[in-house]
Amino acid sequence: xxxxxxxxxxxxxxxxxxxxxxxxxxxxxxxxxxxxxxxxxxxxxxxxxxxxxxxxxxxxxxxxxxxxxxxxxxxxxxxxxxxxxxxxxxxxxxxxxxxxxxxxxxxxxxxxxxxxxxxxxxxxxxxxxxxxxxxxxxxxxxxxxxxxxxxxxxxxxxxxxxxxxxxxxxxxxxxxxxxxxxxxxxxxxxxxxxxxxxxxxxxxxxxxxxxxxxxxxxxxxxxxxxxxxxxxxxxxxxxxxxxxxxxxxxxxxxxxxxxxxxxxxxxxxxxxxxxxxxxxxxxxxxxxxxxxxxxxxxxxxxxxxxxxxxxxxxxxxxxxxxxxxxxxxxxxxxxxxxxxxxxxxxxxxxxxxxxxxxxxxxxxxxxxxxxxxxxxxxxxxxxxxxxxxxxxxxxxxxxxxxxxxxxxxxxxxxxxxxxxxxxxxxxxxxxxxxxxxxxxxxxxxxxxxxxxxxxxxxxxxxxxxxxxxxxxxxxxxxxxxxxxxxxxxxxxxxxxxxxxxxxxxxxxxxxxxxxxxxxxxxxxxxxxxxxxxxxxxxxxxxxxxxxxxxxxxxxxxxxxxxxxxxxxxxxxxxxxxxxxxxxxxxxxxxxxxxxxxxxxxxxxxxxxxxxxxxxxxxxxxxxxxxxxxxxxxxxxxxxxxxxxxxxxxxxxxxxxxxxxxxxxxxxxxxxxxxxxxxxxxxxxxxxxxxxxxxxxxxxxxxxxxxxxxxxxxxxxxxxxxxxxxxxxxxxxxxxxxxxxxxxxxxxxxxxxxxxxxxxxxxxxxxxxxxxxxxxxxxxxxxxxxxxxxxxxxxxxxxxxxxxxxxxxxxxxxxxxxxxxxxxxxxxxxxxxxxxxxxxxxxxxxxxxxxxxxxxxxxxxxxxxxxxxxxxxxxxxxxxxxxxxxxxxxxxxxxxxxxxxxxxxxxxx
Length: 908
Ligand code: ADP
Hints:
Layout: E1 15-19, E2 22-26, H1 28-34, H2 38-41, H3 46-52, E3 70-73, E4 79-89, E5 92-99, H4 105-108, H5 110-118, E6 122-127, E7 132-136, H6 138-142, H7 159-162, H8 170-181, E8 185-192, E9 200-211, E10 214-224, H9 226-257, E11 262-267, E12 272-275, H10 277-283, H11 287-290, H12 295-298, H13 307-315, E13 320-327, E14 333-344, E15 350-358, H14 360-382, E16 386-391, E17 396-399, H15 401-406, H16 415-420, E18 425-428, H17 440-445, E19 450-458, E20 463-474, E21 480-489, H18 491-513, E22 517-522, E23 527-530, H19 532-536, H20 545-550, E24 552-555, H21 568-573, E25 578-587, E26 590-602, E27 608-617, H22 619-681, H23 688-718, E28 727-730, H24 731-741, H25 743-748, E29 752-757, E30 763-766, H26 768-784, E31 791-799, E32 802-808, H27 831-836, H28 843-853, E33 857-863, E34 867-875, H29 893-902
Parallel strand pairs: 29-31
Antiparallel strand pairs: 1-2, 1-5, 3-4, 4-5, 6-7, 6-10, 8-9, 9-10, 11-12, 11-15, 13-14, 14-15, 16-17, 16-21, 18-19, 19-20, 20-21, 22-23, 22-27, 24-25, 25-26, 26-27, 28-30, 31-32, 32-34, 33-34
C-alpha cells in the first residue's frame, strides 16, 4: 500500500492494514496497545479481528465512523476506549486506532479497579446505553450460569447475552429505568429466579457515571444474599407457625367463651368436659354445675334420631347437624340448632364437641309464619274469585277452590300443561281471540300489572265473562317470585247490564214517543237526560239549566218573570211540589205556554238526587181559551145591552101599568063609595032586582079594585118600592082573625076551615096589612082550588128561629114542573083552569114579594089530586116600632073590606 500520501503523524498511531478483507499488517504501536502478537492477528479476516478485539459497541468493520467512541479489549481483557479512522485505497484499508485520553478505566477510575480486585462483592462496569460488560471481577462473573461464570466468556458482551433469562425479567426493567432516568438503583433484597440453580436473592447498587454530562457507564456492586434470605425466611416461617399456633389457641379459648355461641364438650359416655360462658347463659347452669354431669340428662335433650344412630354418624368422623330440644335449669324449653363432632383432644381422648345456637324465637316465628301462611291459604281457598298463583316459571303454586271449579278439576301442574289441555278459548272485549303470549299470566310475567281486564272464557258448553286482575310479586332482590291472578265471573253482571241497557233503550223510546217533553236534572243543574221532544223544543239543547235560562225569559201564570232559583227544577230540589204549573217561555223569539210538573228522585239516603221535569205545550189551548173568552165577553155585552133595552121597556111598561092602575082606581073608588052610600042610605028603597044588580056591580067593582091593587103593588114591588111597616103584634091572634074572616066564603062552598096553633100567643115584628094580603091570598086560592066538602087547615108552629104558618088544602094540587112558575108574575098552572076561577096569576108572585119583604120565605109542597101545603117562614123576632100609638082593630071595616076585595074573584 502506498502510504506516502498519509500524514506522517498518523503513522505514529496504532493501525492495521487490511488487504482484500484480510489483516495484512499491524504496526508495533498496535501490538503494544492490544498486547496481542502478530501471530494472533495477521491473516485473520477483518470480522475475526474485531471479534478477537471484542470491539464494540455495535461495531461494523465496513462502516466505521471516525467520530464515534468504540471500545476494544487487550489480550488481558482490559478495555481501551478508542476512535477509529479508516483510510481506504483500492483493495487496501488502513484502520487507525486513536486511544482516547484516559482510555483505560483502571487509570481513569482507580478506586473502582481497587474495588474490583478486592473480589469481596461482585463489581462490574458496563457501558451505556448498550449495557455491555466492560470490566468485572471474578466474584461478579461467578454469579452467572456456565459458561458465563468465566470472565473471558462475558467481557465485552451485552448483559442479555450472559445473564440467563434477562430478557423480559424484572432485571431488564430495572436496567431500562436506569438508562432512561440516569438515577442510581439500590435494593436491599432483590429476588431473581431465572438462574439454573433456582431462586436467588441479591443486594445491589447500580450507579450511573457521567462524562461531559453524558451517561456513559454504570458501576454495579452486587452481593449474593440468597443464603441469608433463606435463613431469615426459615426463621420467619417458624415464627409465623408459632404465631398461628398461638392465635389458634387464643381463638379456641375465645370461641369457647363467645356469648352467642354455646359450646360444650362431652366424653362419648356423655360426661361434660367443658362448658363455655354461652352455655352458662343459655341453660342457666354454671360450669361448676355442668362439668361432670351427663350432657343429655342435664339438658333433657330430645334428638330427632336414635341416639345409637347419632353415635354411628359421629364415629364415622362426620359432623351431625340438626335441631334438638333442650330444657334450661328453670324448666324453659329451648329449640336449638346444633352441630356435633368427635375430635381427639390433647390427651388422645375422643370427645364430642357440641356447638349450639338458640333458635327458639326463630322457630316460633317460623311456626307463626307457617300458621299465617296456612290461614292465608284458607282465606284464598274461600275467596269466591278464582285465584291462580304461579311461580316465576309459570308453574302453578296455588290455585283455590273457585279456580278448580272453573276448570272442572283440571290437573294443574304448569301453565304450559294447562294451555295444552285448556278447556277454554279466551277472547277480548272486542271478540278477538287472545294469543297465548297475550294471556294475562304472560303479560304479568313480563312485569305488567293488569286491573279489571274484561275477557271471555268460551267453549262449546259455556261462555263466561270474566274480570281479571294480575300482579307480579317480586322478592327483595327484585326478581319475579309469583304471578297472582284473580278472575271474577261477571257473566251475570254483564247480562244484567245488557238487560238494563235494553230496558233503558225501551224506556228511552217510550219517553221519546211521549207527547210531553221530559228531562232530568242533577243538583248542579246539569241535564242528565232528556227526551226527543224536549230537545226539539230546544229546552235541553244545552248542558246546564243555567245556559238555557240565560237565553230565555220565563214567566209564571201571573206574568211575573222567574229568577233562576224559581225554576221548576230548583223548586223540586227544595222539596216543593210542582204540579201542572203554567209558565210562559220566550225562547229564540218563540213564545210558548207550557204546563210543567216536577218530581224528585231520591238516593238511598233519602236525599233528592235528580229532578224529573215534564212539560206540555199548551199554547194552542191557551189561545183557543182566549178566543172563547173574547167571544163570550162579546156575547155578554150584547146580552147586557139587550137586557138593558128590555129593562127599559119593562120600566116603561110598569110605569104605564102604574099610571093606568091609578087612573082605574080613582073611578073604582068613587063607584065603590057610591055603592056603599046606596047600601047605607037607600038600600031599602031599591026594588029586589035593583039590589041584585047592585050586588053584581059591587062584586065586579071589588074584583076590579083587587086587580088594580095587585097591579099597583106588583109594579111597586118590581120597582123596589114596597114599604114595609113592622109593628110588634101577636101573630096567633092576627092569623086566627083572618082565618075566621073567610069562614063565610068557605062555608058557602061547604069547605071546613080549621085553625090550629102550637102556642096561644106570639108577638113578633110584622106588617099586619101585608100579612093580611098574604094569608087572604093563600086562603082564597085554597078555597078556589078545593072541591066541596073538603077542608082547609091553617097551622102556626115554631120551626127553628122562625114562625111557621102553613095553609094546607085537599084540593087539586099542583104538578111538579109548575111549582116554581106559580110564584112568578102571571104564572098559572093552567090558564083554562084559572079562567074558570077567574084568576090573573099575580097573587102568588105578590105574596112571595111580600113574604120576602117581611124577611121570610115561602115554599109549596103538593101532590096532584091530593092537595097542597103552602109554608111561610117568618123571623121570630120583635122590632123597635116607629109608631106605638096606633092601635089596630082588626075587626074594623078595613079587614072586611080587604077580605071582600080579596075574595071578589070567587064565584059564590
Ligand atoms: P090567580 O089570581 O090566578 O089565582 P095566583 O097567583 O093566586 O093567581 O095563583 C096562580 C095559580 O097557582 C093559579 O092559577 C093556580 O093554577 C095555582 N094555585 C094557587 N093556589 C092553588 C091551590 N091552593 N091549589 C091548586 N092550585 C093553586
